[in-house]
Design a protein that fits this description.
Rossmann fold, 52% helix, alpha/beta, seven-stranded mixed β-sheet, flat, two-stranded antiparallel sheet
Length: 500
């Protein structure tokens, strides 16, 4: 006989375990490995809450009107379209930014304006195409409930932002380049402004003695310019403020050249500058005027869009490619002894090493893990099946797993192996600024690949062309560019240029 108390206890434990997993998943979405709140993760959570709010508002509005929820696929498609339209309208009003979500008052006006715009658009569409789908009374009730739920989301989000900011989890991790009086005045101005929401990690300066001295309010000098790049990568720096005077142009260019490889915003402090430019030329950190020297390739919202693109389209492509991958795995296993997958360390986002997956296309005893010797035409190291799958890039399909896991993107600069060379020189020694291509996640395909620069990069010219195309993609990223590259990738594969 089963003890009911034991059964209830096991059910409770199962529910508790599922709850812990859900909390763990939520923490992984919102917090990064350093314990800081992920700005893209927070924005995604707010946008997802907005989407759910508008979906839920439709049956609530119908119940309030006494008409019943009457769920159907057609009604779900309609409310989903309206939810996406509302989110796009809020996005156009810069509602989905961390500074905007911190300020509840302006959000009220943005929500009301967005709901009114969407209500007018929906009413117009129904009037032109299908007036019987919903009455004006239903639309008005739906929009009113949606507005209330959207405002509730913003109240919760604003409170969460304040709590995370007070705890130090939602602040911009900042370093200052340059010491002396300029840095001292800047730190004093930033600390006096409660709205700057930053944590100054330290100061980097090459100057010694009196020229670098100052009362920095407990902010430590962490090193010289030589130490700056590695510290920014390791500490996850978001913002870098340069306080060097304009006359130090050569030193400034040297710093910017190093920082071009990082995903950081770079601002030049104009606090003590005598140069007066139109106010539109400045951005502001708190009340301090700044000149923008460099921006991250993707802002917080763009990160959200690109992550959604990678996870959703990547998962769909992985499902569609599963039969081809299964047949390829069988062919690789039957053709030669050894594992089906080949795992290789390559440079990824922020110059960190990731393990890239491929179908094995070489004999095991002849594999080149570091890619010291690039594969050439009729290379004897390549198996019979390997020649076919490399020619058609089928060997790259397991990288869809890397995409779904978040290590790679569908579109981006192709990841290079650590020992890859062009004209006997390591890639990073061939071209200045080579590592700037690592400011975005590496991709399964990219702008360089659809423009004929896929496959072997054994010469300086080929490498330079690939890197220049990669940098063009980073500087001009958009969702439409990604979709265009994905659409053109099969066409470039049919040409089969440079792939052995």
């Amino acid at each position: 006989m089963v003890d009911k108390s034991d059964s209830a206890h096991s059910i409770f434990q199962g529910a508790s375990s599922r709850g812990e997993r859900a909390v763990g998943l939520l923490k992984a979405l919102i917090f990064n490995r350093r314990g800081s709140a992920s700005r893209p993760g927070l924005l995604f959570a707010v946008a997802a809450a907005d989407f759910v709010s508008i979906i839920v508002a439709w049956p609530i509005a119908r119940l309030i009107l006494g008409e019943g929820a009457s769920p159907s696929w057609a009604s779900f498609a309609m409310v989903s379209f309206v939810a996406i339209l509302t989110i796009a309208t809020l996005r156009s009003q810069w509602s989905y930014t961390i500074p905007a979500l911190r300020k509840l008052g302006p959000q009220v006006f943005k929500v009301i304006a967005a709901v009114c715009i969407v209500m007018i658009v929906v009413s117009g569409i129904l009037f032109l195409f299908d007036a019987s789908a919903a009455s004006a009374r239903e639309i008005a009730a739906w929009m009113e409930v949606s507005a209330l739920l959207l405002l509730f989301v913003r109240v919760v989000a604003s409170d969460a932002m304040r709590r995370l900011t007070r705890s130090g989890a939602l602040v911009r991790r900042t370093v200052i380049v340059g010491g002396g009086k300029d840095a001292e005045d800047l730190i004093r101005a930033l600390k006096s402004d409660a709205d700057n929401h930053m944590r100054i990690l330290g100061i980097f300066d090459d100057r010694q003695g009196d020229r670098s001295a100052g009362d920095f309010g407990g902010i430590a000098r962490l090193g010289t310019f030589q130490d700056l790049t590695e510290f920014c990568r390791r500490a996850g720096v978001d913002l870098l403020i340069v306080t060097l005077p304009p006359r130090a142009e050569e030193r400034l260019m040297h710093i910017l050249e190093k920082l071009f490889t990082l995903e950081v915003d770079v601002r030049i402090s104009a606090l003590n500058s005598k140069l007066r430019i139109t106010s539109r030329a400045y951005s502001y950190v708190g009340q301090v005027p700044m000149l923008a020297a460099m921006d991250k390739p993707l802002d917080d919202w763009d990160h959200v869009l690109k992550n959604l693109e990678d996870r959703l389209i990547g998962a769909l492509l992985l499902i569609l490619a599963a039969p081809v991958m299964l047949l390829t795995a069988i062919a690789v296993r039957l053709d030669s002894n050894g594992p089906i997958l080949f795992r290789q360390k390559r440079y990824g986002f922020n110059n960190e090493l990731i393990e890239v997956l491929k179908f094995r296309s070489m004999y095991v005893e002849k594999q080149d893990v570091t890619a010291d010797n690039l594969v050439t035409r009729d290379d004897p190291r390549v198996t019979r099946v390997g020649r076919i799958i490399r020619r058609m890039s089928i060997d790259e399909l397991p990288q869809l797993i890397n995409v779904v896991r978040g290590e790679m993107s569908l579109v981006g600069p192709r990841p290079h192996a650590t020992g890859a060379k062009a004209d006997r020189d390591l890639y990073e020694n061939v071209m200045q600024g080579y590592f700037a291509r690592h400011r975005m996640k590496p991709g399964v395909t990219g702008w360089a690949q659809i423009n004929g620069w896929r496959g072997e990069t054994d010469t300086r010219e080929k490498l330079v062309q690939r890197v220049e195309h990669d940098l063009y993609y980073i500087d001009n990223w958009s969702m439409f560019l990604d979709l265009y590259i994905l659409a053109m990738t099969p066409v470039s594969l049919l040409k089969g240029k440079n792939a052995y």
